[in-house]
Design a protein that fits this description.
3 domains; about 20% strand; NUMOD1; single chain; Intron_nuc_1_rpt; three-stranded antiparallel beta sheet; Nuclease-associated modular DNA-binding 1 domain-containing protein; Arc Repressor Mutant, subunit A; endonuclease activity; WH-like_DNA-bd_sf
Length: about 270
């Protein structure tokens, strides 16, 4: 018998030999005549198995719950081995981002700075600074506007006329300018406006992408960022892409529909998942 396996059962077999193990059937149940679905049949078997696990409490059974690894803990050596094996790997399915390219430490630093270094400042009509906020959301709450509206005023550079809707009523406030500024030193060579500015990968070609994912619903859409016919990133949804790229869903959709290039370099593709 091979000694490469490290389970408790194999250790006992190697130590005592197969001749000291007996095979027996504790209970027989016929599910072939049942009209229940597979999930229901599986539950019946799990319930029976759990009853025997609780009654006998077999020492060779590392899982104490039928059909589940719940309660099982890996030892420290196993955890360290898992960590070493996974170090440096690029995984294809990571919470919303399906394609993960190799990135440099500089790019990683820039992505971290992107969310931590941006400040929203409010100015009066005569360009006097009124207040500074750590996020667009906080600035929007201060002036009783939505974050989307504040973002539009930041991008357009137009002055807000001070009129806001509160339920069925309108309220008047001082007119403001909104400006997005970075707290990173001026000599820092980072472009914080677009997280993927310097990312380039040639491993995944656009023409070779398989968008047939069984977990997606028929109405799901995959969003891709493409540069020079190479897929830089792929997201599970336009919303995920919008959150990561700091670009509104509407803008991403318009650029995709009109085949426009963002920053004269990046193309956005919306693909319906099959």
């Amino acid at each position: 018998m091979s000694t490469e396996y490290n389970s408790i059962l194999y250790k006992y077999v190697l130590k005592h030999g197969w001749q000291n193990f007996n095979y027996g059937v504790l209970e027989y149940i016929d599910l072939d005549k049942s009209d229940s679905c597979i999930a229901s049949k599986r539950k019946v078997l799990y319930d029976i198995e759990q009853r025997y696990l609780d009654r006998i409490n077999p020492s060779l059974n590392i899982n104490k719950f039928a059909g589940s690894m719940k309660g099982y803990k890996h030892n420290l050596e196993t955890k360290n081995n898992y960590s070493k094996v996974r170090t440096g790997r690029c995984y294809k399915k990571i919470k919303g981002i399906i394609v993960r390219p190799e990135v440099s430490q500089e790019t990683i630093l820039r992505l971290k700075l992107h969310s931590k270094s941006l400040k929203v400042k409010i100015y009066s009509k005569d360009y006097k600074e009124i207040k500074e906020f750590n996020s667009i959301k906080n600035a929007a709450e201060y002036v009783k506007l939505s974050p989307t509206s504040v973002s539009k005023y930041i991008k357009s550079g137009k002055i807000w006329n001070g009129v806001a809707s509160l339920g069925n009523e309108c309220a008047s406030y001082p007119s403001y300018y909104f400006k997005l500024e970075s707290s990173v030193a001026e000599n820092a060579s980072f472009n914080l406006s677009f997280p993927l500015e310097d990312i380039v990968t040639k491993k995944t070609k656009l023409d070779n992408i398989d968008v047939s994912y069984p977990n997606y619903s028929r109405r799901a859409y995959i969003f891709e960022v493409v540069a020079e016919n190479n897929v830089i990133y792929r997201f599970k949804s336009i919303t995920k892409a919008s959150e990561f790229l700091n670009i509104s869903r509407r803008t991403l959709t318009i650029y995709s529909q009109n085949n426009k290039l963002w920053k004269d370099k990046f193309a956005f593709k919306i693909i319906k998942a099959s």
